[in-house]
Protein backbone atom coordinates (compact mmCIF):
# COMPACT_ATOMS: atom_id res chain seq x y z
CA UNK A 1 0.00 0.00 0.00
CA UNK A 2 1.25 3.47 -0.90
CA UNK A 3 -0.27 6.51 0.75
CA UNK A 4 -1.32 8.95 -1.98
CA UNK A 5 -1.57 11.82 0.54
CA UNK A 6 2.21 11.80 0.97
CA UNK A 7 4.50 14.01 -1.09
CA UNK A 8 8.08 12.97 -1.83
CA UNK A 9 10.76 15.49 -2.74
CA UNK A 10 14.51 15.52 -3.30
CA UNK A 11 16.26 17.72 -0.73
CA UNK A 12 19.76 19.00 -0.08
CA UNK A 13 21.90 17.24 2.54
CA UNK A 14 21.71 20.38 4.68
CA UNK A 15 17.91 20.27 4.90
CA UNK A 16 16.90 20.68 8.56
CA UNK A 17 14.04 18.15 8.33
CA UNK A 18 16.40 15.58 6.81
CA UNK A 19 18.95 16.13 9.56
CA UNK A 20 16.25 15.87 12.27
CA UNK A 21 14.89 12.62 10.85
CA UNK A 22 18.35 11.09 10.48
CA UNK A 23 19.09 12.01 14.11
CA UNK A 24 15.88 10.15 15.11
CA UNK A 25 16.97 7.17 13.00
CA UNK A 26 20.34 7.11 14.75
CA UNK A 27 18.61 7.23 18.17
CA UNK A 28 16.45 4.24 17.21
CA UNK A 29 19.42 2.31 15.87
CA UNK A 30 21.29 2.89 19.14
CA UNK A 31 18.39 1.16 20.92
CA UNK A 32 19.15 -1.96 18.86
CA UNK A 33 22.87 -1.90 18.07
CA UNK A 34 26.17 -0.71 19.56
CA UNK A 35 27.53 2.55 18.07
CA UNK A 36 30.19 0.76 16.01
CA UNK A 37 27.48 -1.20 14.15
CA UNK A 38 25.77 1.93 12.83
CA UNK A 39 26.83 2.98 9.35
CA UNK A 40 25.77 6.60 9.31
CA UNK A 41 26.37 9.46 6.93
CA UNK A 42 29.23 11.89 7.48
CA UNK A 43 27.65 15.16 6.38
CA UNK A 44 31.08 16.83 6.37
CA UNK A 45 32.53 14.38 3.82
CA UNK A 46 32.65 15.82 0.27
CA UNK A 47 31.11 12.62 -1.18
CA UNK A 48 27.84 13.34 0.67
CA UNK A 49 26.95 15.55 -2.32
CA UNK A 50 26.69 12.39 -4.42
CA UNK A 51 23.84 11.07 -2.26
CA UNK A 52 20.32 11.88 -3.45
CA UNK A 53 18.23 12.47 -0.32
CA UNK A 54 14.46 12.62 -0.15
CA UNK A 55 11.87 13.66 2.41
CA UNK A 56 8.33 12.28 2.71
CA UNK A 57 5.77 14.85 3.84
CA UNK A 58 2.20 14.28 4.96
CA UNK A 59 0.14 17.47 5.35
CA UNK A 60 3.37 19.46 5.31
CA UNK A 61 5.05 17.50 8.10
CA UNK A 62 8.29 15.66 7.32
CA UNK A 63 7.75 12.07 8.46
CA UNK A 64 10.29 10.04 6.53
CA UNK A 65 13.60 10.21 4.72
CA UNK A 66 15.96 8.15 2.66
CA UNK A 67 18.73 8.38 0.13
CA UNK A 68 20.55 6.64 -2.66
CA UNK A 69 24.31 6.64 -2.98
CA UNK A 70 26.14 5.61 -6.14
CA UNK A 71 28.31 2.55 -5.48
CA UNK A 72 31.91 2.46 -6.60
CA UNK A 73 34.41 -0.35 -6.90
CA UNK A 74 38.12 0.37 -7.29
CA UNK A 75 37.24 4.02 -7.86
CA UNK A 76 34.85 3.30 -10.74
CA UNK A 77 31.13 3.93 -10.43
CA UNK A 78 28.96 0.83 -10.74
CA UNK A 79 25.49 0.58 -12.26
CA UNK A 80 24.21 0.12 -8.69
CA UNK A 81 23.01 2.47 -5.96
CA UNK A 82 22.84 1.86 -2.23
CA UNK A 83 19.75 2.70 -0.21
CA UNK A 84 20.86 4.82 2.76
CA UNK A 85 19.30 6.34 5.89
CA UNK A 86 15.83 4.98 5.16
CA UNK A 87 13.50 5.93 7.99
CA UNK A 88 9.88 6.68 8.88
CA UNK A 89 9.05 8.33 12.21
CA UNK A 90 7.68 5.80 14.74
CA UNK A 91 4.32 7.53 15.07
CA UNK A 92 3.75 7.46 11.31
CA UNK A 93 4.46 3.84 10.45
CA UNK A 94 1.92 1.52 8.85
CA UNK A 95 0.60 4.40 6.71
CA UNK A 96 2.25 3.34 3.43
CA UNK A 97 4.95 6.00 3.69
CA UNK A 98 7.89 3.58 3.55
CA UNK A 99 6.49 1.78 0.50
CA UNK A 100 6.02 5.08 -1.28
CA UNK A 101 9.51 6.29 -0.38
CA UNK A 102 11.05 3.04 -1.57
CA UNK A 103 9.27 3.30 -4.93
CA UNK A 104 10.22 6.98 -5.26
CA UNK A 105 13.88 6.23 -4.53
CA UNK A 106 13.89 3.31 -6.96
CA UNK A 107 12.43 5.63 -9.63
CA UNK A 108 15.11 8.22 -8.84
CA UNK A 109 17.79 5.54 -9.22
CA UNK A 110 16.35 4.28 -12.52
CA UNK A 111 16.16 7.84 -13.82
CA UNK A 112 19.88 8.21 -13.11
CA UNK A 113 20.78 5.03 -14.97
CA UNK A 114 21.23 2.65 -12.05
CA UNK A 115 20.18 -0.92 -12.78
CA UNK A 116 20.37 -2.32 -9.25
CA UNK A 117 19.58 -1.17 -5.72
CA UNK A 118 21.47 -2.62 -2.77
CA UNK A 119 21.17 -2.09 0.96
CA UNK A 120 22.55 -3.16 4.30
CA UNK A 121 20.51 -3.79 7.42
CA UNK A 122 20.77 -5.85 10.57
CA UNK A 123 18.99 -8.84 12.01
CA UNK A 124 17.53 -6.70 14.78
CA UNK A 125 15.35 -4.89 12.22
CA UNK A 126 12.89 -7.60 11.16
CA UNK A 127 10.25 -5.04 10.14
CA UNK A 128 12.71 -3.43 7.70
CA UNK A 129 13.70 -6.81 6.27
CA UNK A 130 10.01 -7.69 5.79
CA UNK A 131 9.41 -4.41 3.94
CA UNK A 132 12.36 -4.96 1.61
CA UNK A 133 11.39 -8.59 0.91
CA UNK A 134 7.79 -7.53 0.21
CA UNK A 135 9.12 -5.14 -2.44
CA UNK A 136 11.30 -7.68 -4.23
CA UNK A 137 14.63 -7.39 -2.44
CA UNK A 138 16.54 -10.64 -1.94
CA UNK A 139 19.61 -11.54 0.13
CA UNK A 140 22.92 -10.85 -1.64
CA UNK A 141 26.59 -11.17 -0.72
CA UNK A 142 27.89 -8.47 1.60
CA UNK A 143 29.45 -5.66 -0.40
CA UNK A 144 31.72 -2.65 0.07
CA UNK A 145 32.37 -1.63 3.66
CA UNK A 146 30.04 -4.41 4.88
CA UNK A 147 31.96 -7.25 3.17
CA UNK A 148 33.93 -8.31 6.23
CA UNK A 149 31.19 -7.81 8.83
CA UNK A 150 29.23 -11.06 9.39
CA UNK A 151 26.56 -9.14 11.33
CA UNK A 152 25.57 -7.18 8.22
CA UNK A 153 22.69 -8.45 6.13
CA UNK A 154 22.68 -7.22 2.55
CA UNK A 155 19.83 -7.23 0.06
CA UNK A 156 19.50 -6.25 -3.57
CA UNK A 157 16.95 -5.77 -6.31
CA UNK A 158 17.21 -5.40 -10.07
CA UNK A 159 15.76 -2.12 -11.30
CA UNK A 160 15.43 -3.31 -14.91
Could you give a quick summary of the protein structure above?
By secondary structure, the chain is α+β, with helices and mostly antiparallel strands. It contains three helices and seven strands.
Keywords:
7-stranded mixed beta sheet, about 160 residues, alpha+beta, about 25% helix
Explain how this protein is built.
With 160 residues, this protein is α+β, with helices and mostly antiparallel strands. The protein has a seven-stranded mixed beta sheet with strand order 1-2-3-4-5-7-6, with helices on both faces. The mean pLDDT is 91. Helix 2 links the parallel strand 4 (76-88) and strand 5 (116-122). 26% of the residues lie in helices and 35% in strands. The longest helix is centred in the N-terminal third of the chain and has 17 residues, at 16-32.
Write down the overall mean pLDDT.
91
Spatial order of strands in the largest sheet: 1-2-3-4-5-7-6
Helicity range: 25-40%
Rg value: 15 Å
Q: Main beta sheet: strand number and arrangement?
A: 7 strands, mixed
Given helix and strand content, the structural type is: alpha+beta
Distance between the termini: 22 Å
Overall strand count: 7
Order of helices and strands: EHEEEHEHEE
Outline the low-pLDDT stretches: none
Instruction: Indicate the overall shape.
Output: globular
State which percent range the strand residues make up: 35-45%
**Number of helical stretches of at least 4 residues:** 3
Amino acid sequence: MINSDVEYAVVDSGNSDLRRLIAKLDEELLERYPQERIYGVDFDHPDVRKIIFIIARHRGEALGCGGIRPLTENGAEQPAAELKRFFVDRGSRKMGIASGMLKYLEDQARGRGFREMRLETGGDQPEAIALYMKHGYRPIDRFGIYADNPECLCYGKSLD
